Every structure is written in C-alpha cells, then in structure tokens.
Amino acid sequence: MDNRIIFAAPSILSADFGNLAGAVRRVDESGAEWIHVDVMDGHFARNLSFGPKTVADLRPLTKLVMDCHLMVDNPQEYIESFAEAGADYFTFHAEAAVHSHRIIQSIKSAGMKAGVCIVPGTPVGVLEELLPDLDLVLVLLVNPGFGGQKMIAPCLDKVSKLKALREERGCRYLLSVDGGVTADNARLVIEKGADVIVAGSAFFNARDDREAVRKLKGLA
Ligand code: DX5
Ligand code: ZN
Asked: For the chain, what is the domain count?
C-alpha cells in the first residue's frame, strides 16, 4: 500500500445512545482521529438520529475531528447550526441539493470543511463540477439509514474513479468510505483509494477498540 495517512472515523450511529459521552471516550482512547456523526431527518434517509445539539454537547468532550454526515433534505438549512455546534466537516448529499456549488461555498463561509456524499445509485459524474471545491468526497457503500449493513462491493469502483480524478485534476479532496466496512475488507477499501474509513458496527461491536482501529486502518 502507498504511504497515504489513513484516518479512522467510528460512526456513533452504532453506539449506545444512552451513553454517547462514553462512546466518545471510547473513540478518543482508540487511536481513531475522527468521529462520524450520522444525521438523518426521516425523509432523505428513513431513520432519525442526531441534531446540532448532539454535536454541541459532544464537542467539549473531545478534540477528535467531528465529521458530520447529513442525510437530510435541504441541507443548506443546517449549515449555521452545525457550524455553531463545532462541526469540522459538513458533508451533504448530492441527491438532496440542486445548488450544491452554492452550498459548498456557504459551508466554507461558515468555517467548516465541505464534503459531498453519493448513495450507491448515484454515479461519480454527478460530482465532477464540484470536485475542485471539495475538501472531502464520501462514497456510501450501503443504502443510507442504518449501521450493520453489508457493503455493496461494486460501489468500490467509484473510489478508484475518484482517486484517479483527483490525480488527473490536481484536486485535494479526501476520499472517505462509509457503510459495511469491516476488519476483513478494510485493506481492499484502502487499496481502492480510501483515505478515511467510516465504521459503525465494526468499531462499536469490537471487543478491543485499539485493535479494531488498527485493522480498519489496514495496519493489523
Ligand atoms: C449509514 C451511515 C453509515 C453507517 C455505518 O446510513 O451513513 O455511517 O452508520 O455503519 P456500519 O459501519 O455499521 O455500516
Ligand atoms: Zn455516515
């Protein structure tokens, strides 16, 4: 594998919601660098989860990168509240926005890094005009809504395409993958080009958090 730095981003969607502070402590002590917050509105994704107050309440507990994944309609309506809450990355769905270019500018003006995510049915081509402005591209390897699903392997071809596009265009977005990543397929995902590994169940169901992170980074 090349010498890219790989970041682990455990998703608290798979944590015990009755003890999120404890979940953040687990992630903090695991060697992971990011914490992935899956925000769902019950419309774009058929589940409900967290809001900006969750991020605001967790923010003082950790220095981890707060990586917010907004599976919501009208994502532009949440930029200010997540910025005030202390989110570091604000990743919205290309499928939930007509004016993605303007939303990216608004995210950056609010002081956050801008990411765009695509669901399994959306081709990479949808992102092409946005790539020069993005800090992160999130490739969903499952249909949005729940942790613990099996990865839709053909989606990995998008990671390779986005890695090639980044080199061709001289872009600098991080490539993040999300959904169904486990210790068994992490190396494959990294070889395809992933820089950030989001994992919910593979982290929170593990017996040894530090070992889980090492495996998710392809180090064990
Ligand atoms: C799915 C979420 C994912 C999910 C990952 O809608 O975006 O972040 O929580 O969970 P696992 O790693 O268990 O598939
Ligand atoms: Zn996610």
From this structure: 1
For residue 199, give the CATH number of its domain.
3.20.20.70
Q: Which domain holds residue 155?
A: 7-216
Using DSSP's 3-state secondary structure scheme, residue 78 falls into helix
Q: Is 10 in the pocket of ligand 1 (CB under 6 A)?
A: no
- Which ligand is in closest contact with the Cα of 11? 1
Q: Which amino acid would we find at residue 83?
A: A
**Residues tagged active-site:** 38, 178
**Per-residue pLDDT, 1:** 52
Per DSSP, the residues of 132-151 read: GG-SEEEEESS-TT-SSPPP
Interval 189-216 mean pLDDT: 98
pLDDT at 4: 87
Asked, for residue 17, whether it belongs to a domain, the answer is yes
- Whole-prediction pTM: 0.97
Any atom of ligand 1 within 6 Å of the Cβ of 142: yes
